[in-house]
Structures are given as structure tokens and as C-alpha cells.
Amino acid sequence: MSDFEMQENEVEFKKKRPVFLLVLVILSGVNLVFSLFGAMGGMLDAKPDKAMYKSAKLEFANMREQLEQANADDFIYIVEQMEGITNNMFKHFQAYNTYQFLVLLLGLFGVVLMYKGRKLGFHFYILYSIGLVVIPYVFNPISGIPAILTIVGVIYGGIWVLLYSRNLHWMQEG
Description:
It is built from 7 helices and no strands. The two termini are 19 Å apart.
């Protein structure tokens, strides 16, 4: 096959991009770019100050109080675990945001590759989805993370991976 025929096939290939893929790329791209800016801000900023610690502590105290008033004492342990995760995130603020930035960058790279019609982008997107679920485990003990956090993260990431997988037939290897 000559270079001209390959270029012609590539142009024809790009014309047939699924609209659903374009919608997913736009939604993911907007989310990832805003998240990247947030993580970049956390990487470059100093650690949270005492006012931020105090504000978070008050929020968790309010949540505990609301659960007690609703006779939902069984769920207080989740609030306590989330408070522990937040405190550890504050302690490792720049490292946490750096890790998050790298995972988000992997996701954005995957989205761009999928937009260009490369299946490799789908695999990067899967790694990104797993990376978001793993972040809390890097900075916290396993026993300190509520199972619901992991379950929701896996389901949410799984839904997006499933949506992107609907476009794999259009993507080329590599």
C-alpha cells in the first residue's frame, strides 16, 4: 500500500469517528482539565493551615451530630474513617496532590489517544480509573478506608470504562 493510500485511509478513518466517543471525550476532558488544575494548585501550595484543619474538624463533628440525631449511629464509623483520610491527606498534601495530578494526566492522555482512535488510550484510561481508587490506599491504612468509598469508586470508574468500551470497534491497535 502506498503512502497516499495510507493517508487516504487515515482521513476516511477519522471521518467515521463515533459521535458517542466525541461526547465522552468532551465530558471527560472538561472534568480532567478542571481536576488537573485543582491538583496542580495543591501541588504548588503550602500545606493547609490551622483554619483549614479546624474547618474540616467542625464539618466532621456536624456530620457526626446529624447522624446521632437521625439515630444512624451505625454510620458514624464511616465519618470517622473519612476524617482520618482527610487528616492524612492534609499531612501529605503536596504528595497526595502530586500523585493525583499524575493519575489525572494519565487519564487525559488516555482520552486524547482514544479521540485519535488508538486503543492504547483505553488501556491508559483503565489505569487512570484504577489509580483514582488506589489513591486513598497510598496514604492510609487499609482498615481506615470505608469500603463504600472503594465500591463507589470502582462502580463509577467501571461505568466510564464500559461507556468508552462501546467505541473500541472504531479504534485501531497501538
